[in-house]
Amino acid sequence: MRDAHWAGAARCAAGCAALLLTLLLAVDTVAGGLGVAHTALWTALAALLFAVLLPTRVSAAPGRLVSRGLLSERSVRTDRLVSVRWPEGVSQRLVLRDTDGGRVELDARVLLATPELWHRLDEDARVSLRNGTLRWGAPALRRLEARLDTETARLVLRRSGLG
After folding, report:
1. How far is the C-alpha of 16 from the C-alpha of 10, rounded, in Å?
2. Which of 29, 40, 78, 149 could bond to 124 as cystine, CB 3.0-4.6 Å?
3. For residues 1 and 114, is the Cβ–Cβ distance under 8 A?
């Protein structure tokens, strides 16, 4: 299973980069300074914006969670988790570590938007807890679970017209 909203976010990143490139080329053309060097510079700037805006793609299978970025891929064995951190405050990043040294950092909003990913992670984390490998982070998982339940309830109420 994969993050259901990744494709839309990737299209948005590409659209923003294309819009920036178009605007920069148009302004440069109107100003009379468009040349090969400027075109290459603006294209590189748009490509950089795309790379910054492109979200990581998160997928899960039984016992494994994978996060693929533009240049890297990281995975963690979710059935052998050692720690789960979800710091309080502004950061929405969930950090998972396994017994093999694997580490994945993902945006908690991905789990909010894709309940199947959360369900897979939750089932495997419970296996880690039963096996005794999960030493740090059970409270973070429960906090995340409570937040997911709250968000799901809000969504149901909103869609039913009650909220």
Report:
1. 10
2. 78
3. yes
Residue position matching structure tokens 């039913």: 160
The model carries a pTM of 0.79
Neighbours of 149 (CB within 10 A): 10
106: phi then psi, degrees, rounded to nearest 5: -140, 155
Rounded Cα gap, residues 128 and 146, in angstroms: 19
DSSP 84: E
Cα–Cα–Cα angle for 57, 60, 64, rounded to 5 degrees? 120
Q: What are phi and psi of 58, to 5 degrees?
A: -105, 130
3-state DSSP assignment of residue 95: strand
pLDDT tens readout for residues 74-85: 999 999 999 999
